[in-house]
Amino acid sequence: MKQWGLELEEPFQHGNVSVVVPAGDAVLKIQWPHRESEHEAAALESWAGDGAVQLLEHDPARYALLLERCRPGTHLSEAGPQAALEALIGLLPRTWKPAGPPFRPLAEEAAWWVGYLPEDWERAGRPFERSLLDAAVSALEELAPTQGEQVLVHQDLHGENVLAAEREPWLVIDPKPLAGEREFGLASIIRSFELGHSERDVVGRLDRLTSELGLDRERARGWALGQTIAWSVDSDYRSSHLDTARWLLQAT
Questions:
Q1: pLDDT, tens digit, for every residue of 50-59?
Q2: Is 156 a catalytic residue?
Q3: Do 66 and 27 touch, CB atoms closer than 8 A?
Q4: Contact 58/127 with Cβ under 8 angstroms?
Q5: Across residues 174-191, what is the average pLDDT?
Q6: Which residue among the candidates 156, 174, 201, 207 is catalytic per the annotation?
């Protein structure tokens, strides 16, 4: 972009909601409007580079972010399940900054999930058992109004959204921010199939994360179950997510 004097290189392989292009020591990220990432820039500003990639410039009118480039940029998942989980346990508390507006409250997001889940489940042809849907909805309804301190949580933090860098060994990227309690921030890691996909793996991550971070296991289990089902109906990873939800339902 001319305004930032960038010399653009070949784009990285892009995801579903953005195009990412390296430019020297920076990376240009162009988003298309999306509910989950609408306050990405604000999240990066809040983190201020503490365990996360730095925001260098932001043009909200063009949905453009100029970010610190991570080199070598390998994904944390490539470090192996145990090393990756250890790194995430170290990073998580650094990302839990006190949060309020403009970040959407987790209670509001949970109510949105509850509102559309039964209809989407029917529309999709009842792709999984009703008991699993009911358990997820009940968890979301019970947890939302009884939360603890509200902090900035990255609702899609996993081994593919942390990159190897020079400034720090690992930096968090691609925040999908909400303001919610810490236990919710474990959900995406608990279901991170790239870190191992079996009942033992999922329950092991639940147990280790809650134990080492001093969090409520039952609340973390409920949030992981609820969000995993909310994100499963139209997901390319539905089968894996449903496995995870069933294992969590049994992990009492």
A1: 999 999 999 9
A2: yes
A3: yes
A4: no
A5: 97
A6: 156
